[in-house]
Write a structure and sequence with these properties.
This protein is mainly beta and about 375 residues long. The protein is built from six helices and 19 strands.
Length: about 375
């Protein structure tokens, strides 16, 4: 997968950036291979390269303009897990090296802006909710409660070392367990998968709790404004949040051409999350103009900067006599539209237009207009 982007407005300079990702994986049916009934093994290795338009052009955005950039432009062991099914597939137990977003709040990455890509909570609290391509040791238990519903819970190791670019460059393929674990992330999700007039829907309701202590963004250890006092931040016991993820096909043929709509909303705790909530909604039309493999997508989204953190930065700059930092306390708005052209099933070219209003949630940053191209090849 590759993503190119050029900013025609916004930022400190106009330029073009390119980034890509290679993924090599295998899925093994252990029953066919070894007679191990109900077991599946998955291994995926990813390699990322390239540069980040938002940083290079000085746009000041929070959400990546090229979602495939990040977590160290290097090689990662992204998946290395075993899934065991029990009771005629009613219960599934998964264990190994996993990404949170492959199971919880999971969402496609058809759009190029990160606002509309992947498990949304990771966009807000990515220091401990770790999405693709970085993994950690984890386990997940899923129970299909009825034909159209399920409930699942996971336990994921929280270790800041895994999201450190320096560690990834030297140990990206390692299956080790480095020192530095601070706690565990426990997500819980209920999913309802109804069919309306033969058209599939997916309605997910979830929440999470990180047992690791978090640092308060505004208060010091005496519960005074730490930007003014310069004292150590207040330690918060745990970090948490909620999310919903709705998708519904509203026209066309079941599983084929037609229009689908989606809505994603996430809220993180305001004590510790610098970006505390995000919402995104949009639609995708498959098979426009009689071309079954093509897709049109349109989406709008907003990410909110926590005003408590912005207030801390203003107070700290004033106390230290530093130039005022541009830290927003409002919303970063993003609009993206794309047309995906697929000449054959294994190749797509997806030009897109992005408009970013108040990058970083700060009105002081110029709005950005970006032309992008996302493309992919599956061998």
């Amino acid at each position: 997968m590759s993503e190119a982007a050029h900013n025609y407005s916004g930022g400190k300079k106009e330029l073009t950036s390119y980034t890509d990702q290679w993924a090599l994986g295998t899925t093994v049916d252990m029953d066919k291979l070894l007679g191990w009934s109900g077991a599946t093994f998955q291994m995926t290795i990813t390699d990322r390269n390239g540069s980040n338009l938002g940083a290079d052009a000085g746009i000041g955005n929070n959400m990546l303009i090229q979602e495939v950039y990040g977590r160290g432009q290097t090689t990662h062991m992204t998946q290395f897990w075993l899934n065991q099914a029990f009771l005629n597939n009613q219960v599934q137990w998964k264990i190994g090296r996993m990404t949170v977003g492959e199971d919880f709040a999971s969402f496609s990455c058809d759009f190029q802006n990160l606002t509309f890509c992947g498990a949304q909570p990771g966009n807000l609290v990515g220091s401990y909710w770790v999405n693709w391509p970085t993994s950690q040791w984890a386990t997940r238990l899923k129970v299909n409660a009825a034909e159209e519903s399920y409930v699942q819970v996971g336990v994921y190791q929280v270790n800041p070392i895994y999201v450190d670019d320096r560690y990834a460059r030297h140990h990206g393929l390692s299956l080790d367990n480095p020192n530095g674990t601070t706690g565990v992330l426990i997500p819980v999700e209920y999913g309802w998968l109804p069919t309306w007039n033969g058209l599939a829907g997916s309605y997910k309701f979830g929440g999470w709790y990180n047992t690791s202590d978090g640092k308060d963004l505004y208060q010091d250890r005496d519960r005074e404004p730490r930007g003014l006092t310069g004292q150590a931040p207040r330690e918060r016991n745990g970090q948490y949040g909620l999310y919903i993820n709705f998708q519904q096909q509203i026209s066309g043929t079941a599983g084929g051409s037609g229009t689908s709509v989606f809505l994603n909303i996430s809220q993180a705790d305001r004590a510790t999350a610098a970006q505390d909530h995000q919402l995104a909604l949009g639609l995708q039309n498959k098979g426009p103009f009689g071309r079954e493999l093509d897709v049109i997508g349109v989406a709008v989204g907003a990410t909110h900067n926590n005003g408590r953190y912005a207030a801390f930065m203003r107070q700290q700059d004033e106390r230290l006599g530093n130039p005022a930092s541009i830290v927003g306390d409002g919303y970063e708005y993003v609009v993206e539209t794309y047309y995906s052209w697929a000449p054959i099933p294994s190749i797509y070219l997806r030009p897109n237009l992005q408009y970013i209003k108040n990058p970083g949630g700060a009105r002081a940053n110029d709005n950005a207009f970006v032309l992008g191209l996302k493309s992919g090849i599956t061998f």
